[in-house]
Write a structure and sequence with these properties.
11 helices; two-stranded antiparallel sheet
């Protein structure tokens, strides 16, 4: 039995990471940790910006390093968002824990099964994300050792300083060795937490569909049938509040990431198009891997958010299928109002404008490809 939010498989791994980093639930003795983790990465991101200023003449290398700069900037942006909105995140986690315990304590075995399935799925996703991110960055560190020329895993530069001279090169290379751990715990927890939040919302909607299916039958009297309906309505109100609070937490960051990731995918496709300028097959493989990484993160967001839209539609169908003709007039009027309420979309919105659905994901990819073809047409003239 989970006694704290850290014990819940939906978000437990990521909350423990954030708690250790003092991003969430800081104490007077641990508050310094968030600066110890974040500020070195901020300094590296700034040095990456200086490096980009030096790389204008080498377009493929510029675009590759632009990807690293944008990815690390995005991880910092996510982490700073959680730090700034710490109280909102902690309050939302408390609400999730309350709903989680409420469902488990209800004694409904079906609800418990659905919830445990969501926990296992979120736990597997969190472990996979952290492992894949860590190994990917380790690969970037090792790859530079086999290059003919000296280069850092993440291109960095400082004004008036030659980064390839000894011992400057060795010092900054050693300073980048902890980056697989640092970037993994900065970049992936937000993705996994978002997925865990969405999976919990999906689980609650599935539980609601099950509860609605139990309404009806000749063996139920009018009072029992009406109590089941009002219980479902109260449950749906809880789900509505949960999804709206989730939308308020993440709508801004997913809007920024949609713009950043869409631009990066367009840039990397353009980099593949100028293949004559790429001298190493390894660079082509790296570009393809980076594109797939961006697509994976975006798909994780939009697929999990799309699940909420689908499950909400199933709730509306379940309400429609309730045998209204078996109830009295009060039951029928309440059911009709509930049916009208379920017609409203239950969704997470990108910047509170566009719904996060797989259709929106496809539109984002189409926009990236359209800008890529425009750039290719301009350069081929």
């Amino acid at each position: 039995m989970a006694t704290t939010i850290d014990d819940i498989g939906l978000v437990g791994i990521n909350v423990r990471i954030w708690r250790y980093m003092a991003v969430l639930y800081p104490t007077p003795g641990t508050s310094w940790r968030k600066f110890a983790f974040v500020l070195p990465v901020c300094a590296m991101n700034l040095m990456q910006f200086f490096y980009l200023l030096r790389m204008w003449s080498d377009l493929p290398a510029f675009l590759l390093n632009l990807f690293f700069f944008a990815a690390i900037f995005n991880s910092l942006m996510r982490t700073w968002l959680v730090i700034i909105k710490r109280r909102e995140f902690e309050k939302f986690l408390e609400e999730l824990f309350r709903l989680y315990r409420w469902i488990l304590d209800s004694g409904d075995e079906y609800s418990r099964t659905i919830l445990l399935e969501a926990e296992r799925e979120a736990h597997r996703l969190a472990v996979f994300n952290l492992t894949a991110s860590f190994l990917d960055i380790v690969g970037a560190l090792v790859f530079t050792l086999f290059k003919d020329e000296r280069s850092h895993p993440f291109g960095v530069a400082l004004p008036l300083l030659d980064m390839t001279r000894t011992p400057v090169y060795e010092i900054f290379y050693l300073l980048q060795i902890p980056t697989p751990l640092l970037l993994s715990v900065l970049y992936m927890p937000f993705v996994s937490v978002f997925a865990g939040f969405a999976l919990f919302g999906r689980a609650m909607l599935r539980i609601l569909v099950h509860k609605l299916s139990l309404i009806g039958g000749q063996q139920q009297d009018a009072g029992a049938r009406y109590q089941r309906l009002t219980a479902c309505i109260r449950f749906y109100i809880e789900v509505l509040g949960y999804v709206r609070n989730l939308n308020n937490l993440v709508n801004l960051i997913v809007a920024i990431e949609a713009i950043v990731f869409g631009s990066i995918i367009c840039s990397l496709l353009f980099c593949l198009n100028i293949v004559r300028s790429i001298t190493s097959p390894t660079q082509i493989v790296s570009i393809v891997m980076y594109i797939l990484t961006m697509l994976y993160v975006l798909y994780t967001y939009y697929n999990r958010a799309n699940d909420l839209v689908i499950e909400n539609a199933l709730v509306a169908d379940a309400v429609y299928n309730v045998p209204w003709y078996e109830g009295n007039m009060r039951f029928r009027k309440t059911l009709l109002i509930f049916l009208m309420q379920t017609q409203c979309p239950l969704e997470i919105r990108v910047g509170n404008v566009y719904p996060m659905t797989l259709a929106m994901f496809q539109s984002l990819l189409n926009a990236s490809y359209s800008y890529f073809t425009m750039l290719r047409g301009v350069t081929n003239k």
